[in-house]
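A student in our group prepared the protein record below, which I am reviewing. This is what I was given:
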Amino acid sequence: MQRRQLLTAFSAASALALLPGLTQAQQDETVLDLYLVRHGQTAWNLEKRLQGATDNVLNETGRRQATELAQRLAGVKFTHIYSSGLKRAQETAAAFAGSTPVTPLPALNERSFGKFEGIFEDERSAALFAEFGKRGSMLDDALDGGESLQSQADRVKSAVRDITGKHKTGSVAIVAHGGVNPLVLAALLDLPVPEAVARIKQANDEVYLVRLRPGQAPSVWKQIVRSTLEQL
């Protein structure tokens, strides 16, 4: 399947509301549904700081978002849940896991941003943020003590390969980060890493569903809630 066709499937499907009943009703022995969840809000998200590999926990809003997420996903019978190894992702996963096994995978951790870790993503760190804007998307730039985008993409792709190798059918969740889930989609949809990072912007507590069926291009849905009705 050519990448252009995959992009068409992604663009057309991404505006659809995601309904748990849809996934369960259409599930069969050939389908793997991957739910991509970004963790709830942290204090650094609220403060617009570049969080990276810093192991922050959810703030009050993030904990509320995780509780609401559990309500929205209550109709989905997950086979397994994978989270990053960072606390904010593990807390989000625990909110909706119930009795479903949760496996933390460090390969799904957010990238370390080196000297840019913790800077404000606005005029408060104007010079550093401008420098990060130029360097952050360069594949081989480790950001002075951090991790390169290529290294992050490689480990995320390996994690996706392991997950889809273990689970051929059912519903599986991946709970990770704003810089990780675009790379998950890059691996699944065969997108160039720079394009995925530049174009896919998942907010805190948002959910994508990627449906994988042998011989067909992946289909992607985005869960729409009241606060995001304009995206329909």
Notes: The first strand starts at residue 32 and ends at 38. Residues 77 and 171 are 7 Å apart (CA to CA).
